[in-house]
Amino acid sequence: MTTLASESPTPDGAAAEVLRRHAEDAFAAELAALAAQDDRPRPERWRLSPWAVATYLLGGELPDGTVISPKYIGPRRVVEVAVTTLATDRALLLLGVPGTAKTWVSEHLAAAISGDSTLLVQGTAGTPEEAVRYGWNYAQLLAQGPSRDALVPSPVMRAMADGKIARVEELTRIPADVQDSLITILSEKTLPIPELGAETQAVRGFNLIATANDRDRGVNDLSSALRRRFNTVVLPLPGSLEEEVDIVTRRVNQLGRSLDLPELPGGAEEIRRVVTVFRELRDGITADGRTKVKTPSGTLSTAEAISVVTNGLALAAHFGDGVLRAADVTTGIAGAVVRDPVADQAVWREYVEGVIRERDGWKDFYRAAREHSR
Amino acid sequence: MSTEVTLLGVRHHGPGSARAVAAALEQLRPDAVLIEGPPEADQIIMLAGEKDMVPPVALLAHAVDDPAKAAFWPFAAFSPEWVAIRHAVEHEIPVRFIDLPAAQTFALAGSPGGVPGGTSPESDAESDAESDAESEAESEPPAVLDPIGALAEAAGHDDPERWWEDVIEHRVPGADALAPFAAVADAMAALREHSADNGGRAAGVGRRDELREAYMRQQIRAARRAGHTRIAVVCGAWHVPALRAMPTVAHDRALLAGLPKKVKTDITWVPWTHRRLSQHTGYGAGIDSPGWYHHLFTAGSEPVARWMTRVAELLRAEDHPVSSAHVIEAVRLADTLAVMRGRPLAGLTETLDAVRSVMCDGSDIALALVHERLVVGDALGEVPDAAPAVPLQRDLARLQRSLRLKPEAEERLLDLDLRNELDVSRSQLLHRLRLLGLDWGMPSRSAVNSTGTFRESWRLRWEPEFAVRIVEAAQWGTTVEEAATGKAVEAAAKTAELAELTGLVEHCLLAGLPTALPAVMRVLADRAALDTDVAHLADALPALVRALRYGDVRGTDSSALDGVARGLADRVCVGLPPACTGLDADGAATMRTRLDAVHAAVGLLEPAVRQKQRAAEVASEAEAEAEAEGGAGGPARPGEAESLAGRWAATLHSLTRREPSAGPATGVPGLLRGRAVRLLLDDGRFDSEEAGRRMGLVLSTANAPADAAGWVEGFLSGGGALLLHDARLLGLLDEWLSGVPGEVFVDVLPLLRRTFAELEAGVRRTVGERVAAGPLGAPTVAAAVATADIDHTRADAALPTLALLLGLPATGQAQAAPRIPRQSDRRAS
User: Do B410 and B368 share a domain, yes or no?
Assistant: First the structure.
């Protein structure tokens, strides 16, 4: 996966004041190099060919030696299907549990294809229809009556007019009626403006990337009419233990520095164990593939593993003996695993008794986990 | 001369190769077709033309004396060999198999220092029948060489299977149907040379291949001598260069002179399935997707669109809404993906990516269905009745002879004594046949009344339709044991119920199938891990423990079983307290039965350890008390938590403590708590004083009478003599009962009646007498009075007799302390 592996664009003096720069600015050099050497056919209004977009996301080396940093670390298939979807003018829906780099991927896709990742609608429970279609400048509306000038286009409308990629974040949080206003846009590629008796028709190059979280409950599920307009790509959790340990370690180090925690010994071993526990419970099978375990209701994402370890570091540094020990992390793990006090508690205890107890070299971990799960 | 011999190098089971072969044969119009395969099958090859013959089918060759020595040569509709056979049969051209005879292959495999390769159908099917260029190389450990991989690498592709698909399988036959075969032959020749350079001929090709190729060359020569002028040879691409070279006859004769004597071999056609095509062959994507290949071969034009339509049909049949619009979008996405990945045609990867993204909402679960039903497929072949008998039939006949069990239509009873070897073998055979669905013998009650585990009774009756069942069972293996094993493993994979699985385990042990056991146990362990219902787990445990004991009787290795049983017991320990919470009366009653069963099972699982523990407990009663007070979950002693019995005791402790705090839904019903206390008491983990204390607490006025009555029922069920021996308990009970208010008494009366009705008649009477005799409040005083009344001299006179009865040393020092009869004692008897 994902986000953290490559957030290291070279700071670029002038614009360095902003806290975080848009993808198209931060990686402008890479995009330019790709565009210069891209000799494959490009769909209309695309800055790069689909091959170059895939290279931009997955990383690689260009013929002239320019190194493209990988933006997304994960299966190649995911990126290929995503880019191809956008090229077939179907809308793209990125699904995944929190922390699987959905937003990150959508931003970079928009940046690489349209050179503009800012046409963004953030989905919330209160997102109004104006955010998807258009609103009015009421002063002008009152002064001059309905006219094009009084109309305030939404990011989606602007993208349609300019032939760019629009992005909708957290699509499933948007109320169902607002969601459905996307149907006409995606199927007819047009946005009618009944007040003016006019419409805005999308020009070629327009497309939409939506992200949604498939783990949350109580969100507004997509109507099947809308769902049908999307090709769905599920972004997976990290593929291997090593990959995830690597991500957690990096992130914990960054966080630790920003929280001014001292560097503690013993960290690597505990991180490995935390990630192992998280992965086993998440996958429902032990790392050696021998035993199945029940899966708790929590997400157990990499982000949670990171917070468990950070928390443990703080505990060890301030209240412990300065070494990260099993006892410092087991409380946090139990907290992350046991979301439902009855069912998850049983799952966790079964895991502790059935898997951890018999594992070589995990005696201390078992004791600590047992202690905390009483 | 060699111009009249055309070598068609193919990839086995490649639909592209099959199409190319069909086109080539059409163009060539040969007058003889030679195919890589066992020559024994020449006599039954014409059956392939029958209309009852539906692929997938397989040629099955086996040694007559040892049916376990067998090899399969599977053919699907899209196998190039099958296409060639059909072509020859339809055009009435002679067709012959030219590989090394199976008879000699078996002999080779059996001879010391011979050629590597197992004798089981699986390994033979891989290394021999499926002699794809790739797997052939794999059978040669010293120089593992992957010819297709090497070619793909040379072409700059990282995935050999995909490369082969792109270059060969997806190619539409051009004007000259023979040109591609020449190209493949050249490529293979270059590869063989290359590998010969790197490690010498022996390392690159291997002795087995040399022998086979020499034999094939001899057969080609023979065909030429027979006067055929246009000979087509269909063989693995890897062999083409060797067959093209044609060294001298003497060279080949010298090579073949070393062949061992033939083993007597039989060959027949058996029905095959796509699933088995995908299982038993060792070469990746080529056969991972027989359903897809079949589709490619049969679909004709627009294979992707047709495929997507079939996927849509399947998903709709499973209530997954898929419209025609989905199909259109999926086809577009697959095609665009193929362009993006630089492939000539959307392959399986692209179509599956598109299906996942467009039709399955990104979910792999729906996709798994597509994979299972379409990519692999359920196709089952058919074989005409004229095909010779299957080896399983022979094996059964052999066993029937050697075990002196004649199949008779008349019913008869058979008593087996499992202490002698012949009867054990008979029992195993009958159990195995039952696993295979042949209920020749049905277990029955013995006419001789006996409870010994060494006796087994059967009712035997042979039904004519068993012959059909045997043919059906032939797909599992060539011997009864092998077939039963295969069937058991597959049955395990399909079974959803835990209790059924433990039954299957028991069956496997009875049938003596040690090789099936690990696989079944794996499934069992997995199911147990995922089963959230403690009731299921608790139901499964006793059967498993029983199986474990059976294993001991029959001398099978049951360590794996032991591990799973312990794991199951652990899960029950963890899950039981929550599962017992908030049960209604009926639920509590069934749970009590389970509690007893699990308790017994745990006791049987760890008899040795328990014994030790009991000894320890007698030594430190105080500690047990501390544990009882201190709380269950925790390890009161380190060793205690480690042992299963200790953990089970801890679970019982925690049950006893879960009293309902507000309404019956908030705690464990009294019935189960009382039962748990009793079980702990019986095990010596509570002394009677502690039990009395608990009873006092439960029967105090603060508690709901209904709950208390339930507690008493649980506590007294299965033996009320306790009340007679500990007058204090009876006193407590009597006191509580007298204190129950009138209207509540009516409510609890049925419960109490039931409780006391279950007591033994003698106990019930005595209890009644005691209660009738007067106040029970001060039993100790009464006892003291009784002691004072005893005439010691007269009592002493009875002592020697008593000691004799009890088997004590006749010192007259008989111990007078009353011992509470424990349920475990009763069980042991």
Answer: no
- Which residue in A77, A228, A293 is closest to B326 by CB distance? A228
∠ Cα B574 B577 B582 (to 5°): 145
Count A/B contacts: CB-CB distance under 8 Å.
90
Last residue of a domain, one of B493, B520, B547: B493
pLDDT of B140: 34
Measured between CA atoms, the residue of chain B closest to residue A96 is B362
Q: Which residues of B touch A90 (CB under 8 A)?
A: 329, 332-333, 358
B761 lies in a domain?
yes
Give the pLDDT score at B285: 32
Q: Are A349 and B325 an interchain contact pair (Cβ–Cβ within 8 Å)?
A: no
Q: pTM score, two decimals?
A: 0.64
Residues B409, B364, single domain; the answer is no
Test A349 with B578 for CB contact under 8 angstroms. Answer: no
B815-824 mean pLDDT: 49
Query: How many residues belong to chain B?
Result: 829
Report which of residues A134 and B127 the model is more confident about.
A134
Q: Choose the closest CB to B336 out of A87, A227, A354.
A: A87
Q: Is pLDDT at B130 greater than 50 in this prediction? A: no
- Select the highest-mean-pLDDT range: B119-128, B233-242, B311-320, B546-555: B311-320
Contact (Cβ atoms closer than 8 angstroms) between residue B556 and residue B514: yes
Check whether residue B109 and residue B180 sit in a common domain: yes
| Per-residue model confidence (pLDDT) at position B664 | 63
Which of A136-167 are b and which e, b meaning 16 or more Cβ less than 10 Å from the residue's Cβ?
A: eeeeebeeeebeeebbebbbbbbbbebbbbbb
**Number of domains comprising chain B:** 4
Nearest neighbour of B357 by CB, restricted to A85, A343, A354: A85
Residue B123's pLDDT is 35
Least confident of A272-276, B399-403, B432-436, B510-514: B510-514
Give the residue numbers in A contacting B (CB under 8 Å), as ranges: 50-51, 54, 77, 80-81, 83-85, 87-88, 90, 93, 95, 224, 227-228, 231-234, 284, 291-294, 342-343, 345-346, 349-350, 353-354, 370, 374
Same domain flag for B412 and B363: no
**What are the strands, taking DSSP E only, across B431-533?**
441-443, 455-460
Number of CB atoms found within 10 A of residue B68's CB = 16
From the list B323, B333, B362, the residue facing A95 with the nearest CB is B362
Containing domain of residue B261, as a range?
Answer: 2-49+70-265
> What CA–CA distance (Å, rounded) separates B699 from B681?
18
Q: Which residue of B has its CA nearest to A374?
A: B633
**A88: chain B residues, CB-CB within 8 Å:** 329, 332-333, 336
CA distance B713 to B569: 26
Q: Do B353 and A77 touch (CB under 8 A)?
A: yes
Amino acid B631: pLDDT = 40
Segment B375-432, tens digit of pLDDT:
888 777 777 777 776 778 778 888 888 888 887 767 788 888 877 888 888 888 888 8
Query: Quick check: is B623 in a domain?
Result: no
Let me know whether B208 and B312 are in one domain: no
B53-73 confidence digits (pLDDT tens): 888 888 877 777 776 677 778
The residue among B756, B777, B798 that closes a domain is B777
Residue whose structure tokens are 């060494």: B454
Q: Are residues B101 and B195 in the same domain?
A: yes
Q: What is the ipTM of this complex?
A: 0.76
B312 and B412 fall within a common domain:
no
Residue B200 lies in a domain: yes
CB A307 within 8 A of CB A335: no
Residues B325 and B356 placed together within one structural domain of the fold: yes
Contact A291 B333 (CB under 8 A): no
The residues with which A190 forms a beta bridge, in sequence order, are: A201
Instruction: Mention every residue, 6+ apart, whose C-beta is less than 8 A from residue B699.
Output: B708, B711, B712, B732, B733, B735, B736
Examine residue B465 and state whether it is found in any structural domain, yes or no.
yes
